[in-house]
Amino acid sequence: MIPSILPTYNRAPLSFVKGEGAWLIEADGRRFLDLGAGIAVNALGHAHPALVAALTEQAGKLWHTSNLYQIPAQQELADRLVEATFADTVFFTNSGTESCELAIKMARKHFFDAGQPERTDIVAFEGSFHGRSSAGIAAAGSEKMTKGFGPLLPGFKHLPWGDHDALHAAIDDDTAAILIEPVQGEGGIRPLPDQCLKGLRDLCDERGILLILDEVQCGVGRTGRLFAHEWAGITPDIMMVAKGIGGGFPLGAVLATESAAAGMGAGTHGSTYGGNPLGCAVGCAVMDHVATPEFLAEVNRKAGFMRQRLEGLVAAHPDIFTGVRGLGLMLGLTCKVANTDVVKAGYDTLVATVPAADNVIRLLPPLTITEGEIAEAVTRLDAAATTLETA
User: Fold this and answer.
1) Residue 119, C-beta contacts closer than 8 angstroms, at least 6 positions apart
2) How many helices (H) and strands (E) are present in the chain, helices listed first?
3) 3-state class (DSSP) for residue 72
4) Residues 99, 243: one domain?
C-alpha cells in the first residue's frame, strides 16, 4: 500500500522539531550539529532572529497579492541584487528548478528575437544537477535523472566534465548557451577552476552565445564571495539562484543582463507565488547579512579553519577518507567506504551530512557556524569514522 507521502525519498529515521543556529533538535531531544543546512539552504542557520523578525512582521501585514500588482519588497530585493551583481534585471521564482526553466526559456527567446531561431541548443555537462523539472533533467542528461521520463525536452548537448576539446567541437551555429555550475554540488563538490570559467566566458564572447551559471547551491555567500563566479573575475549573462537567498523560505531568482533578457516582455513568463511579499521580505533580511564584506570575510576565515580540521580528519582515517575538496563552506570529503555509510555513522554521533555523487559527503553548514561548532562537528565525524574502522 502506498504511503500518504509519495515515497520518492529514502528518508533517514529522524524527525527534527526545532533548530537553533547550527543545531537541529530531534523529537527525542537529541541535538545534532547540522552540516547540511537543508542542502545549502539555511545560510544563516536555523531560527535566525533577523529572519524570524522579517517574516513575522511581513506576515502580520500581507502575504500574497500575485504579480498583477506592484510588490514593494520584491522591488527592494531586485534593486539590491542588481546593485550587488552583474545583473540588470531579476525575475523571482520559488525554487532552483523554476529558475532553470526560465533561464533556458530566456536564452532561447533571446536568439529568437535576434532573428536566429535556429539557435536553441544548450551545452551542459556530466555530473550536473539543474533540478527535476522536464528541462532540468534534460539538461543534466544522466540515466538516473531521465530514465522513465521520456520523451525528453530536446536541444541539450552533454559533455564530459573538463574536456576542452569536446566543448569546442560541440559549439556550432545552433548553440544558444553554455549552462554550468561553478561548483557542482550534487555531482560531488567539484569546483570549476577559475581559468576554465574564464575560458568559458571568452568562448561565449567569441562565438556570440550566452553563458548561464547555475549558482543555486554555490551562490549567496557559500564559497566566500556573494556568488562563486566572482572568484574568477567574470560575469555570466544569466544566473540561476535559489536555496540560500531565502535562508530557508522558498525563494529563487533568475538574474540577467539587459541584453540576455531583452526578449522577455509582458506575457512571456509568469509565476503566481514568485516574488511574494513574505519571501522577498526574508530575502532582503538575508542580503542584509550575507552581502556585507565583513560577513563574507568571516565565511572565508571559518572555511580555512574547517578545511584544516578536515585535512587532519582525513590524515587520521586513511581507510575511510581520501581527501577534502571544495570552496568556502561548500566542502566535500571523498570516501573510501560507501559515503552513505559515513552519513549513517554520523547520525549515530549526532552530526548531519549530505551524500553526493563520486562517493562524496557534502559539508554545507550554515554560514553562521562558529569555530567551536566546526571543531565539535569534526570531532563527531572523527567518532563516526572510528566506528566504521572497528565495525
Assistant:
1) 108, 111, 173, 174, 175, 176, 209
2) 12, 17
3) helix
4) yes
pLDDT tens-digit profile of 296-355?
Answer: 999 999 999 999 999 999 999 999 999 999 999 999 999 999 999 999 999 999 999 999
Which three cell numbers mark 80? 539590491
Q: How far apart are CA 47 and CA 211, in angstroms?
A: 36
Regarding whether 299 and 285 lie in a shared domain, the answer is: no
**Residue 1: CB partners within 8 Å, gap ≥ 6?**
none
Q: List, as one string, the DSSP characters of 8-56.
A: -S---S--EEEEEBTEEEETTS-EEEESSHHHHT-TT-BT-HHHHHHHH
Q: pLDDT grade, residue 163 (50/70/90)? A: confident
* Distance in angstroms (rounded) separating the CA atoms of residues 259 and 240: 16
Do 63 and 276 contact (CB within 8 A), yes or no? yes
Domain boundary among 239, 260, 290: 290
- Straight-line distance from the first to the last Cα atom of the chain, in angstroms, rounded to the nearest whole number: 35
Q: Nearest CA to 200 among 240, 236, 160, 230?
A: 236
CATH number of the domain at 310, please: 3.90.1150.10
- CA-wise closest residue to 116 among 267, 262, 269, 266: 262
**Interatomic CA distance for residues 27 and 144, integer angstroms:** 33
Phi, psi of 299 (to 5 degrees): -60, -45
63 and 180 in a single domain? The answer is yes
Mean pLDDT over all residues of the chain? 97
Question: Which of 225, 260, 290 is where one domain is finished?
Answer: 290
